[in-house]
Specification:
The structure holds 3 protein chains of 3 kinds.
Chain A: H1 3-8, H2 11-48, H3 55-77, H4 86-102, H5 108-130, H6 135-155, E1 165-166, E2 172-173, E3 177-178, H7 182-204, H8 207-217, H9 219-224, H10 229-255, E4 257-258, H11 265-278, H12 285-301, H13 309-322, H14 327-340
Antiparallel strand pairs in A: 1-4, 2-3
Chain B: H1 4-20, E1 29-36, H2 47-61, E2 64-65, E3 68-76, H3 81-95, E4 99-102, H4 106-119, E5 122-125, E6 142-144, H5 149-162, E7 167-173, H6 176-191, E8 195-202, H7 210-219, E9 223-229, H8 231-242, E10 251-256, H9 259-265, H10 267-270, E11 274-277, H11 285-298, H12 304-323, H13 328-337, E12 349-350, E13 356-357, E14 360-365, E15 378-384, H14 386-389
Parallel strand pairs in B: 1-3, 1-4, 4-5, 5-6, 7-8, 7-9, 9-10
Antiparallel strand pairs in B: 2-3, 11-14, 12-13, 14-15
Helix pairs in contact in B: 2-12, 3-4, 5-6, 12-13
Chain C: E1 3-4, E2 7-8, H1 9-40, H2 47-65, H3 69-90, H4 100-122, E3 138-140, E4 145-147, H5 148-170, H6 172-182, H7 184-189, H8 194-216, H9 226-241, H10 246-266, H11 274-285
Antiparallel strand pairs in C: 1-2, 3-4
């Protein structure tokens, strides 16, 4: 709404335009309020969930949901497909496992901070090397770097190699709350997830997030507008890596175990599946995707279909790419728009 | 309802009661969990067949203990420590499972056994190989039943040394298990006056062994030992056959080789291989009878792992019956008091470090001409008495011995 | 005895020859991948599964249909190639216009389905495939004993590789293919059936993978997972060689085999990883790859 227009238009037209502008703003504010209410409702469900569902399973869900959200920041909002995120997940897990095991008595959150810091630094290094390339080459560099990190983890004695790092003490949160208690640990993990989620939300809805979106949609134009595209991409990469490390660190505390599975390239593939299934570029998509995949894996492995887990996941992958490219959340959003507008 | 608070309260109350009257079976059921690789590399070692062996034991026992039902759970650990440990954790937290068996990949077992220890339950480990399970990782909450790397290395290495193999070249899988095997072999070889002239560590897992076999040939050693397992061993043996290792005079010693591996590779490739096993189906009438029953249900002949599962479960159920309790400590003490004498083991006894010591057997793989049937694969050369086969308890690094049986 | 870094020269020769043999395998596999990516811009993550299918087709053929190894060398690639064409026509074409990464994800999903199904059908222990009688045994070359079959692998693989290269770079069919993928609309206007060409090309790339599978069956374990272990290595080879370059894939495959062979002598634990180190270096210094045409 340019001022020139309102100056040139008649007073009646000017007020009509003002009314329309205000209505638009009100609608957007109402939509945001609805969204926030929705999130609060979800949070409410999450608060009472452990009374009905096995808390350790829920904590696994939260960790992987955070992992997928962090990955989605890079894929959905920065437009960069990384095939090496397992490296950050494992790095966070191993470093946290190491610090909590070696410095017994260290409070839980310090162990997690150590792991997250380590994976942030690793993300910075990877990012510096990988950002220069695009598309499939970017994906390949991240894969290669992750494979090298995998090799380091295999060789390094502190990781325990194939056996993994076992019996990691959960410690006491802030030195006070015993994290061995599943319920207490659950609320802590929920808080960690909410923190990560809020960070991602704020990043997406910030001016920086808008620039990121512009870069994703048309990089040459963004460059011509004078934005330091590489720096923006690198920052997204580092945030994504750090939050992934946070997810890995928390997971190690929950399961008291860090293993090579976390660093294997299949793990990188799994998080891609979760994000794709849930909906790339949507905020809740990765959460939904992670929930579906983790639930599927655990319910299938206990039943007669146990041997078909990989096949079923493969079928879902294929169907997603062919039919559900916008993922579950994207599909639901379209349904709502069609039926409720 | 799987309500956490209810279960916690019930556990608290029953443990208080259990303290007072020890003859008490929790939840009025004996709950057994079977954890194994059902779809990956070790599927044929234990897998669905091992579950059948468990069911056979329960059926032969009558399905109930002192009138209480025996209930089983099973899960695929996908060969991953985290999946295995989490499954066991959930079993203990949500279903109050009393005993866990199967347990195949050493890395999975070490993680899951820790969870069993924290949960105060009992694990009867049949499938895994690592001798560290009763060494530095021992605990009163688990028993290692069927075999371990020490017994295998000891038995096979000793036999080959006696056969004239003085200089050794060791092909090792580059991970903790392989390194442990390599050390076990070195110790035995050097103790008997032999020497290790070279080693090479290959990434785990590897698909092409031509380079390493060439190095083994180049070393000129009498014996080429394979300190690896599973697919790596199979591939090493295939490549060794292709490059004519045994034809040119070197001996091949496989450390961790199972009946299903020999069956899969065929006698052409494996003939003459010497190996150690905890049990073989064609040793006597008892073993043949049980094996036939297993074969009718599963479609393949059993190796030592399902036989071990059957034996361990029967022994466990008998102890539960004797004591009237499914409390882990009580049952374990009873198990240690009774010797193990069944179709699986002769002169078997459970030591304080959790090792079930029993006779092992040195076998040689038959030539295609000698074999009269699809599963007629081994010739039993000699019996190795249990006390000689396994790590002597004096050398053990175990810190947490169970009370003497 | 001359020593190179502490290793006798004769031993080194033996290892280099083995490296060359492995390299010809890599060359064959990465050739198929390079054709599919270079010409069709499809990132075929199902290549490893198709390699596995080729090996299993030979196994099933031998054990249930009496198809000999020599017949399998011809029939297996044909069959799996046809399957590949079906995949292209039925599935890949639907996402032809989208981001390349969807092709990657789709083929990745297909690989999961195929490999998972085969695990269910055949188990994981490996299905034994006997060495063809004609190629059994070997020759003592002085510095090593070379099994005849391994020698055959180099000959077969390199012959097929160079035949393919020749066909693409030097024949008219190849020029139609190259033009058709650069400018499909123009080629279509000239009357060339471009979609058919695309389908045939994908099928050919898949057939190459299956051929490698049959070659592998007697010496490597025929297991459902045999392809997924090789897949990322082959991708690395293609990326290093340059994703558009046919000759690049062949030469790089051989070179990587040699480098890996040397690593197995001096630092065997790193044998699986050295190729990724090289990939990172190449991507940083020459992003188009050693022989590539564009970034």
């Amino acid at each position: 709404m340019s001022t020139r227009e309102s100056v040139q238009a008649s007073p009646m037209q000017a007020s009509a335009i003002q009314v329309r502008a205000n209505a638009e703003r009100e609608r957007r504010r109402a939509a945001r309020r609805r969204q926030h209410l929705f999130y609060l409702a979800l949070l409410g469900v999450a608060m009472v969930a452990p009374l009905m569902v096995y808390p350790v399973f829920l904590m696994k869900l939260l960790c992987f949901a955070l992992f997928a959200c962090a990955f989605n920041l890079l894929l959905g909002y920065a437009g960069l497909l990384s095939f090496g995120h397992a490296a950050f997940f494992a790095c966070g897990g191993y470093i946290t496992g190491y610090t909590l095991s070696t410095y017994t008595g260290l409070s839980t959150e310090l162990g997690i901070v150590a792991g997250t810091l380590a994976s942030t630094v690793l993300g910075f290094v990877f990012g510096l090397l990988a950002i220069r390339r695009q598309g499939i080459y970017f994906a390949m560099i991240t894969l290669a770097l992750a494979q090298m990190v995998f090799f380091v983890f295999v060789q390094a004695p502190f990781t325990g190699g194939e056996n993994g790092m076992q019996g990691v003490p959960r410690g006491h949160l802030f030195g006070l709350f015993d994290m061995q208690n599943n319920m207490s640990l659950y609320y802590f993990v929920l808080a960690v997830f909410v923190l990560g989620f809020v960070i991602i939300q704020r990043t997406i809805h910030s001016p920086y997030g808008q620039v990121l979106k512009a870069i994703r949609e048309n990089e040459p134009r963004a460059i011509s507008l004078g934005y330091n595209v590489d720096a923006h991409k690198l920052l997204a990469f580092v945030i994504s890596a750090g939050l992934t490390g946070l997810a890995g660190s928390t997971k190690t505390v929950v399961f008291q175990l860090a293993s090579l599975t976390d660093a294997h390239w299949h793990m990188s593939g799994e998080v891609i599946l979760m994000t794709l299934l849930g909906g790339v570029g949507t905020i809740l998509g990765p959460v939904v995707g992670a929930t579906v995949v983790v639930t599927l894996q655990s319910s299938l492995s206990n039943g007669p279909l146990g041997e078909w887990v990989h096949v079923i996941l493969g079928v879902i992958f294929v169907l997603c790419v062919l039919l559900f490219r916008s993922g579950i959340v994207g599909w639901v959003e379209r349904l709502i728009k069609r039926n409720f507008k | 309802m799987k309500n956490l608070r209810k279960t916690a309260a019930a556990a608290l109350v029953s443990s208080m009661i259990a303290g007072a009257a020890q003859a008490e079976i929790s939840n009025d059921e004996v709950r057994i969990g079977y954890l194994a690789d059902m779809s990956g590399t070790y599927r044929d070692l234990s897998g669905p067949g091992g579950l059948e062996a468990l069911q056979m034991a329960i059926e032969d026992f009558g399905g109930t203990v002192n009138g209480k039902k025996i209930v089983t759970f099973h899960a695929d650990d996908l060969n991953k420590p985290d999946v295995g440990a989490n499954t066991v954790r959930q079993w203990i937290d949500e279903r109050n499972v009393d005993m866990v068996t199967g347990m195949v990949a050493s890395s999975v077992v070490l993680a899951a056994a820790k969870v069993v220890e924290q949960g105060g339950k009992l694990a009867l480990i049949s499938g895994a190989a690592a001798s560290s399970i009763t060494n530095e990782y021992c605990a009163p909450s688990h028993i290692h039943w069927t075999y371990d790397t020490f017994a295998l290395a000891n038995g096979t290495a000793n036999a080959v040394l006696k056969d004239g193999g003085k200089s050794w070249f060791i092909l090792t899988a580059d991970y903790a298990f392989g390194h442990a095997m390599e050390n076990d072999i070195k110790k035995v070889v050097e103790a008997e006056g032999g020497s290790v002239v070279g080693t090479v560590r290959h990434p785990f897992p590897s698909s092409d062994f031509s380079s390493y076999i060439l190095q083994a040939q180049g070393s000129g050693a009498d014996v080429v030992a394979l300190a690896n397992a599973g697919a790596d061993t199979v591939n090493s043996l295939k490549t060794a056959s292709e490059f004519g290792v045994t034809q040119s005079g070197q001996k091949l010693a496989g450390m961790v080789v199972f009946l299903n591996d020999i069956h899969a590779m065929g006698l052409d490739v494996t003939q003459g291989l010497m190996l150690t096993t905890g049990w073989y189906w064609d040793m006597n009438e008892e073993t043949r009878a049980w094996a036939k029953r297993y074969h009718d249900r599963v479609g393949r002949m059993p190796g030592m792992v399902p036989a071990g599962i059957y034996s361990a479960t029967m022994h466990y159920l008998n102890a539960v019956k004797e004591t009237g309790s499914d409390d882990a400590r009580v049952v374990r003490a009873q198990m240690a008091k009774t010797p193990v004498n069944d179709m699986f083991a002769k002169n078997g006894k459970i030591r304080e470090d959790g090792r079930m010591v029993h006779d092992m057997y040195l076998v040689k793989v038959k030539t295609p001409a000698e074999s009269k049937g699809e599963w007629d694969l081994y010739e039993v050369v000699s019996t190795i008495p249990g006390d000689e086969a396994f790590r002597p308890i004096g050398e053990s690094q175990c810190q947490q011995m169970a009370p003497k049986g | 005895m001359t020593l190179v870094f502490g290793v006798p020269l004769s031993v080194l020769f033996g290892q280099l020859l083995l490296g060359l043999i492995n390299g010809s395998f890599y060359a064959l596999l990465s050739l198929g991948l390079a054709i599919i990516f270079g010409l069709l811009r499809i990132i075929n993550f199902a290549h490893g599964a198709q390699y596995m299918l080729g090996a299993f087709a030979a196994f099933i053929g031998l054990n249930y249909l009496g198809v000999s190894y020599w017949m399998a060398l011809l029939l297996s690639p044909l069959l799996i190639g046809l399957l590949g064409m079906g995949i292209e026509r039925g599935l890949l074409r639907r996402i032809a216009g989208e981001d390349h990464l969807y092709g990657l994800l789709l083929t990745f999903g297909l690989a999961l389905i195929v490999e998972g199904s085969f695990v269910k059908l055949f188990g994981v222990s490996g299905s034994p495939y006997p060495m063809p009688d004609l190629l059994k045994g070997g020759h003592n070359l002085g510095f090593m004993f070379l099994p005849t079959y391994r020698g055959w692998v180099i000959v077969a693989a390199l012959t097929v590789c160079f035949a393919t290269w020749y066909m693409i770079e030097r024949t008219r069919l190849g020029s139609y293919l190259r033009a058709g993928t650069e400018n499909p609309k123009l080629m279509q206007a000239f009357g060339i059936n471009v979609p058919l060409l695309v389908t045939l090309t994908y099928g050919y790339g898949v057939a190459l993978a299956a051929f490698a599978g049959v070659l592998a069956a007697p010496i490597y374990a025929v297991t459902p997972g045999m392809g997924s272990n090789l897949l990322i290595v082959v991708f690395a080879v293609v990326v290093i060689g340059g994703m558009g370059s046919i000759m690049g894939a062949i030469v790089t495959g051989l070179a990587m085999g040699l480098i890996e062979g040397l690593t197995k002598v001096f630092y065997p634990e790193a044998a699986n990883t050295v190729i990724f180190v090289i990939m990172v270096l190449v991507l940083l210094l020459r992003p188009a790859g050693l022989f590539g045409k564009e970034a």
